[in-house]
Amino acid sequence: MSLNHLYSILCVLGLVMLSPLPARADGGASGWMSDNDLSQQFRGVEIDGHYASGRTFSEAYRRDGRLEYRERDRETRGRWSVEAGSFCTIYDMDSSGGCYRVKRVGRNCFEFYFVARTEDQARLDPNKPSWTARGWIKSETATCADGASV
Asked: Can you give the CATH number for the domain in which 83 is found?
């Protein structure tokens, strides 16, 4: 092996070691947003996003705790809250909402990991978080890459 070849390998290894790690598929605890971060980030804003299936949605989080959800052929209202490290979106007369751990994966990119169907479940016995959706603040330039980071 030549000295130049060895030097090239060492440079590549150095770059790999300095590169940021990708988001973990299991939603490792080190990256979760805190209750305070969740409240400050989402209160009074609207996000656009997409699910793992590619289906897109918009959701507006009002300052008073109410929300409006929209996708292609569906609109619903409900309330949002922050409970035990989870961001909860509970819909009026629709059981599809739930509570999610949230990671910031870019300046304006957030990943949502399902943990429980209700706020009580989120407090008492959250499921292992599983990647559900990615979203960004609608009024700002999105910084999300296409596809899931998991």
From this structure: 2.40.128.640
Inside any domain, residue 25:
no
Total tally of structural domains belonging to the chain: 1
Pairing of strands 109-116, 94-106: antiparallel
Residues in Cβ contact with 45 at an 8 Å cutoff, skipping those fewer than 6 apart? 60, 61, 137, 138, 139
Are 38 and 82 spatial neighbours (Cβ–Cβ below 8 Å)? yes
Give the tens place of pLDDT for each residue, 26-51. Answer: 344 469 999 999 999 999 999 999 99
Helix then strand then coil, in percent of the chain rounded to 5, is 20, 45, 35
Give the long-range contacts of residues 63-66, CB within 8 A, separation 24 or more.
Answer: none
Kindly report the length of the chain.
Answer: 150
**Nearest to residue 60, comparing CAs of 42, 72, 37?**
42
User: Is 145 part of any domain?
Assistant: no
Domain carrying residue 106: 30-137
pLDDT in tens, 98-117: 999 999 999 999 999 999 98
Residue at 89 is within a domain: yes
